[in-house]
Design the sequence.
């Protein structure tokens, strides 16, 4: 079995479950941008049929993580500066709106749950994979507290598409600590029922992540970061 799939033995899994597993490995760059995803190898790794893998890859294509070309099969989509820019700009507006709503209507129980999740984030600031995953879960939870089903759904959809870029922006420990400090300010604003400040802080956090992701992306490409 491919060592990259060590862990849970997935037999007779649904295409969506397989897609989620492959998608996680794309986000964590176990599968690199541009890498070809071979149906036969994936089918063997998951102990499922190639038809199941094909359906899983179509799901990933709809999420923007995989490109499928006739006669050439599937490959991980390349990272794109334009996509990075577009996604973060839109996401910043939505996150700001969600945090404003939470600040204006949260309950003591909501705040306690947020603080618990923040503590989990603090405990994993040294580990990129854990921090990126937990920050994504915190974002998703916060948006659900906004009371807008549509907003939460939009953010979850963006989470699938933007995950690789978010992870880029959190590559260094110093950057994760900066992110954590901003999260603390955000929860303080929410606790104070300050909708304006909560919106501004969460927009800033998203755009801060965008700039860090852009800098890391351009570093990898051997260029100087914009504005640096």
Sequence:
């Amino acid at each position: 079995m491919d060592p990259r799939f060590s862990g849970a033995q997935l037999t007779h899994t649904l295409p969506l479950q397989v897609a989620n597993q492959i998608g996680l490995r794309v986000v964590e760059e176990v599968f690199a941008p541009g890498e070809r995803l071979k149906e036969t190898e994936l089918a063997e790794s998951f102990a499922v049929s190639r038809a199941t893998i094909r359906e899983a890859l179509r799901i990933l294509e709809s999420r923007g993580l995989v490109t499928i070309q006739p006669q050439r099969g599937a490959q991980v989509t390349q990272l794109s500066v334009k996509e990075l820019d577009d996604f973060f700009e839109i996401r910043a507006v939505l996150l700001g709106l969600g945090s404003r709503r939470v600040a204006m209507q949260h309950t003591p129980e909501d705040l306690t749950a947020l603080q618990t999740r923040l503590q989990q984030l603090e405990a994993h600031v040294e580990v990129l994979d854990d921090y990126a995953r937990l920050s994504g879960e915190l974002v998703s939870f916060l948006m659900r507290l906004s009371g807008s089903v549509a907003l939460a759904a939009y953010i979850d959809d963006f989470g699938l598409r933007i995950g690789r870029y978010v992870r880029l922006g959190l590559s260094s420990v110093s950057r994760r600590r900066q992110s954590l400090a901003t999260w603390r300010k955000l929860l303080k604003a929410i606790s104070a029922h300050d909708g304006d400040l909560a919106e501004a802080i969460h927009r800033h956090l998203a755009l801060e992540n965008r700039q860090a992701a852009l800098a890391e992306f351009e570093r990898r490409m051997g260029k100087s970061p914009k504005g640096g």
